[in-house]
C-alpha cells in the first residue's frame, strides 16, 4: 500500500518547522567513546527523536515553498513525500514507559562525569554565542557555548549526556535503542537517492522553463538543502553506528568518525574506483594512470565516507578531462598526480591533471549545480531513485559543488585553479588545529584517556587561531571551533558562513 500524506500531517509538519534546529558539535559526537552505555544511548535517542523531526520538517516546508513552479515538479514532490514520511515515522514511534526510578537515574550525572562530560572547561568562553541563539540553552546558558552549561534544561537538549551509574539498565531501554536505530536505518535507505532525485527535478524544471542555467535563488536553495542533508545523515549515520558499536567496536572509531583516518588508504581506494568507472564508461583497457604522493603515516580525525566522496568525485572529473582532451584511442595518457601534504597548520590534498583546463569565463560556473562541461546533460536512468543507481561518469554538474560542501562542513575548503590549454589543480584543505584532527582533542574526548584540555591551553589555541585568520571572533569561532553538526539552517540564515568565507578571501560562499 502506497504512502500518502494527509492535511493533518502537513499541519503537524508546519508546527515543527516553527522550531529552530539545535546545534550538535563534533565534540559531543566523539564524547560517546568506544562503548557508550545503554542509558547514554537512550538519552541520545530521545534527543534525536525530537531533533530530527524538526530538521525534516524544515526541509518539507522549504520544498513546498520553492518558487517558479519548481515545487510542482514530480521529482521534487517525490522527495518532499520522502521527508514527510520519515517525519511521520519518527513522531509516531512509541516510547517505552519508564518507572520514576529509571527516570531519576537517567537524569543523574554519570559517575565518570568528571573525566568525560566535563572535559570541555567551563571557563573557556565562546564569544560567538549570544543569548537565545540556540534553543538548547533557554535557561541553563553558561555564556560559554561549549556544551557544559550547569542548567538542567541545557543538558536535556544536548545530544551527548552521560548516563552511566554503574548499574544495569532495564531491557526496555536497550530494546528501544535498537528499535530507534532500525527506524533510522530505514529512513537513511529511503533518502539514499535524494541527490539524484532532486537533480532530476531540476532538469524537469529547466526544460519546462526553457532555461540553460539555474538562478541565484535556486543555487542558494540547493546549497542550503544539501548542507542540511549532510547534517541529517551525519546524525543518523553516527547514531546507527554508535548503537551497532556496542556489539562490535573498533578502537579507531567513534560511530562513523575515525579517530585515525589514513589518508593514503582512502586515496588509493578512490583512485582504484575512479579508474574503474573511467574504463567502464569509455570502454578503455587501461584508464589514465594516477600517481599518489603521500606519507603513509598521515592520520587525522575525520569521517572517511566524506573524504572518499570528495576524492572520488574530483578524480573522476580529472580522468574524464584527460581522456576527452587526448582522445579515447590514445595508447598512453598523461599521468594525473595526487599529492597529500601535512604541514604544521594544514593538511592539503592536491589533484593535478593535464586535461586541458577550464576557460576563465567558465570557472565561476563550475560551482553551479547542473553546470557541466559535457556537451549535453543526459537523462537519468529509469532506476535513478533506487539506492543502487549507477552514477554516470559525468553530466549532472554535482560533483564539485557537493564535494565543496563536504569539505566546508568540517571547516575545510575545496578550491580549483585552472590553466587553460594545460590542466587543472583541485585542492582540498583542512586546518590541523581544528577540533576534528587536533591530537590533544582526540586524547581528551575518547574514553581511553581521562585528560582534559586546560583553560589556558584552550585560550592560547583560540588566540592563535584568531590571529592567524585575522577575522572577527564571532564568525570564525562559530564556524570552525564550535562547528554545529548539521545546523545548516541557522548558519545560512544568519549569514555566518558567507561572512566567514568572505573574510578569509574565499569568493564562493554558501
Automatic annotation (TrEMBL):
Annotated compartments? Mitochondrion matrix
Q: Does the keyword Transferase apply?
A: yes
GO BP, sorted A to Z: regulation of glucose metabolic process
What SMART domains does this protein map onto? Answer: HATPase_c
Q: Which UniProt keywords apply?
A: ATP-binding, Kinase, Mitochondrion, Nucleotide-binding, Pyruvate, Transferase
Q: What is this protein called?
A: Protein-serine/threonine kinase
Quote the SUPFAM superfamilies the UniProt record gives: alpha-ketoacid dehydrogenase kinase, N-terminal domain, ATPase domain of HSP90 chaperone/DNA topoisomerase II/histidine kinase
Q: Outline the extent of the Histidine kinase domain.
A: 307-434
MF terms in GO? ATP binding; pyruvate dehydrogenase (acetyl-transferring) kinase activity
Q: Which GO terms describe its cellular component?
A: mitochondrial matrix
Q: Catalytic activity, per the record? A: L-seryl-[pyruvate dehydrogenase E1 alpha subunit] + ATP = O-phospho-L-seryl-[pyruvate dehydrogenase E1 alpha subunit] + ADP + H(+)
**Enzyme Commission code:** 2.7.11.-
**Top-level lineage group:** Eukaryota
Species the sequence originates in:
Diplodia corticola
Assigned protein family? Belongs to the PDK/BCKDK protein kinase family.
Disordered, as annotated region: 113-149
Amino acid at each position: 500500500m502506497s504512502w500518502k500524506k494527509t492535511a493533518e500531517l502537513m499541519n503537524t509538519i508546519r508546527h515543527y518547522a516553527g522550531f529552530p534546529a539545535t546545534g550538535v558539535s563534533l565534540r559531543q559526537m566523539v564524547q560517546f567513546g568506544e562503548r557508550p552505555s545503554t542509558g547514554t544511548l537512550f538519552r541520545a535517542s530521545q534527543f534525536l527523536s525530537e531533533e530530527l523531526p524538526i530538521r525534516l520538517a524544515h526541509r518539507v516546508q522549504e520544498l513546498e515553498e520553492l518558487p517558479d513552479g519548481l515545487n510542482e515538479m514530480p521529482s521534487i514532490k517525490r522527495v518532499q513525500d520522502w521527508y514527510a514520511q520519515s517525519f511521520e515515522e519518527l513522531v509516531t514511534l512509541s516510547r517505552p514507559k519508564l518507572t520514576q526510578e529509571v527516570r531519576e537515574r537517567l537524569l543523574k550525572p554519570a559517575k565518570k562525569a568528571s573525566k568525560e562530560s566535563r572535559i570541555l572547561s567551563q571557563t573557556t568562553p565562546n564569544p560567538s554565542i549570544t543569548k537565545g541563539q540556540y534553543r538548547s540553552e533557554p535557561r541553563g546558558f553558561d555564556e560559554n557555548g561549549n556544551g557544559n552549561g550547569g542548567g538542567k534544561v541545557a543538558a536535556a537538549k544536548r545530544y551527548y549526556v552521560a548516563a552511566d551509574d554503574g548499574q544495569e539498565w532495564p531491557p526496555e531501554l536497550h530494546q528501544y535503542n535498537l528499535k530507534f536505530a532500525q527506524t533510522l536505518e530505514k529512513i537513511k535507505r529511503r533518502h539514499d537517492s535524494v541527490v539524484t532525485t532532486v537533480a532530476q527535478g531540476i532538469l524537469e524544471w529547466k526544460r519546462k522553463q526553457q532555461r540553460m542555467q539555474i538562478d541565484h535563488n535556486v543555487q542558494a536553495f540547493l546549497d542550503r538543502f544539501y548542507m542540511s542533508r549532510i547534517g541529517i545523515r551525519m546524525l543518523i549515520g553516527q547514531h546507527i553506528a554508535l548503537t551497532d558499536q556496542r556489539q562490535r567496536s573498533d578502537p579507531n572509531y567513534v560511530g562513523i568518525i575515525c579517530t585515525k583516518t589514513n589518508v593514503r588508504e582512502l586515496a588509493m581506494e578512490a583512485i582504484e574506483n575512479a579508474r574503474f568507472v573511467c574504463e567502464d564508461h569509455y570502454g578503455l583497457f587501461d584508464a589514465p594512470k594516477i600517481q599518489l604522493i603521500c606519507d603513509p603515516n598521515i592520520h587525522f580525525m575525520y569521517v572517511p565516507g566524506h573524504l572518499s566522496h570528495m576524492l572520488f568525485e574530483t578524480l573522476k572529473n580529472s580522468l574524464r578531462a584527460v581522456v576527452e582532451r587526448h582522445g579515447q584511442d590514445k595508447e598512453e595518457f598523461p599521468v594525473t598526480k595526487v599529492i597529500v601534504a601535512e604541514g604544521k597548520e594544514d593538511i592539503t590534498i592536491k589533484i593535478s591533471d593535464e586535461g586541458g583546463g577550464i576557460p576563465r569565463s567558465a570557472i565561476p560556473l563550475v560551482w553551479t549545480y547542473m553546470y557541466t562541461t559535457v556537451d549535453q546533460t543526459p537523462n537519468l536512468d529509469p532506476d535513478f531513485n533506487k539506492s543502487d543507481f549507477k552514477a554516470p561518469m559525468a553530466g549532472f554538474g554535482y560533483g564539485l559543488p557537493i564535494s565543496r560542501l563536504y569539505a566546508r562542513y568540517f571547516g575545510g575548503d575545496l578550491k580549483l585553479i585552472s590553466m587553460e590549454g594545460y590542466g587543472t589543480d583541485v585542492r582540498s584543505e583542512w586546518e590541523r588545529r581544528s577540533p576534528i584532527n587536533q591530537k590533544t582533542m582526540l586524547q581528551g574526548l575518547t574514553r581511553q584517556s581521562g585528560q582534559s584540555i586546560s583553560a589556558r591551553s584552550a585560550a592560547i589555541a583560540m588566540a592563535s587561531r584568531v590571529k592567524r585568520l585575522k577575522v572577527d571572533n564571532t564568525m570564525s569561532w562559530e564556524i570552525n571551533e564550535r562547528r554545529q553538526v548539521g545546523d545548516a539552517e541557522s548558519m545560512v540564515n544568519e549569514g555566518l558562513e558567507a561572512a566567514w568565507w568572505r573574510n578569509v578571501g574565499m569568493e564562493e560562499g554558501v
